Amino acid sequence: VLKPLKGAYDTMLKARHERGTLELDIPEFQVKMDAQGEVTDIVKRDRLDSHKLIEEFMIMANVASAIELESRQLPCMYRVHEAPDPVKIEGLADSLHGMGIKFAKGQVIRPKVLTQVLERTADLPEAKLVNELILRAQSQARYDPTNQGHFGLALTRYAHFTSPIRRYSDLMVHRALIRGLKLGTDGLTASEETKFNDIAEHISATERQSAAAERDTINRFKASFLSQKIGTIFPGKINGVHRAGLFITLDETGADGLVPMSQLPDDYYIHDEKNHSLTGRRWGREYHLGEKVMVRIMESNPVTGGIALRIVEGDDDDDFQRPKNDNKQGRSYKRGEKTGGKKPGTSRNRSQNKRPRR
């Protein structure tokens, strides 16, 4: 059974690449807890070929259900994902340019165009951030009784017939199929068909609410875990530059935190919004989007999920009391070790910064 399935999967995968699907690689993290409900670790979820195989067959089942309902002129609850807003694409282009990555403005945006950017940057240190920036530029998927296609999957029609977590949209499609294929008496009724627009708006809204609740919960679990690591130094990357400071994503846990201006090396920093950078007026230190940095955990609030960080540099005060027996997460650095930021007077030239021009 497995060999024919693998053969069918390989064929579908080839078709997926040919139609130009947007291939984002966004890591997911799993929260591990003990019997008392305390967070013991945050680890990356494995993504195996078997997961991808199942996912591809589910996508084909979703497409087949939409085609079947259309052929019978029955209502369908489509999963709609529209092309990105031009304003977001403009912001994406500015972010990529600020990282030294070429991206032509004004071009027609198709999934394949964005996938080509991902392929060109796959071996760069900024690869993960590029994935996240492209994800942020996407329109939010929603449910709609009117077919508008699915941009990310490069499909002209798509519904949710099956999914890892059963959704109400799946049941709507099931009941429409029951009615069309005469599979029972509990199919979609004519009166329920008139409510499709209202139902689509409702389940789209509740999906956004549940997704936000899930994000908040995971952020609080991460903050709870890191609250035991106050003073520990972690590697991370700058994922946002703001006049308030630097937003950092920690490599090992995926936790997001803020380095406020007060926790940057002593200087007055000028915010360059277009190039996504901060530059020290006096000493010339520069921080750029996508740059690797070392940060110390200063505060971590499990109630709000907020994490406050501090950039670690050669003159950083190393008198912090670190957690004992902490040999898995983070590491200790000797006083004077260079761990982040750019030396005063260092040029922004990308070749000197070892950041390939793309």
Tell me the Rg in angstroms: 24 Å
For the biggest sheet, the summary is: 5 strands, antiparallel
Q: How would you spell out the order of helices and strands?
A: HEEHEHHHEHHHEEEEEEEE
Strand percentage: 15-25%
* Mass-distribution shape: globular
Helix content: 25-40%
Which structural class do you get from the secondary structure elements?
alpha+beta
Order of strands, widest sheet: 7-6-5-11-12
The number of helices is 8
Q: What does it look like?
A:
The chain is α+β, with helices and mostly antiparallel strands and 358 residues long. The protein has two domains: 2-222, no CATH class; 226-358, OB fold (Dihydrolipoamide Acetyltransferase, E2P). Helix content is 34%, strand content 18%. It has eight helices and twelve strands. The chain has helices spanning 2-19, 49-71, 86-98, 111-120, 127-136, 168-181, 190-193, 196-226; strands spanning 29-33, 39-44, 78-80, 142-144, 233-242, 245-250, 256-260, 269-272, 277-280, 286-288, 292-300, 307-311. A five-stranded antiparallel sheet has the order 7-6-5-11-12. A three-stranded antiparallel sheet has the order 8-9-10, with no helix packed on it. A two-stranded antiparallel sheet has the order 1-2. It starts with a helix and ends in a 47-residue tail after the last strand.
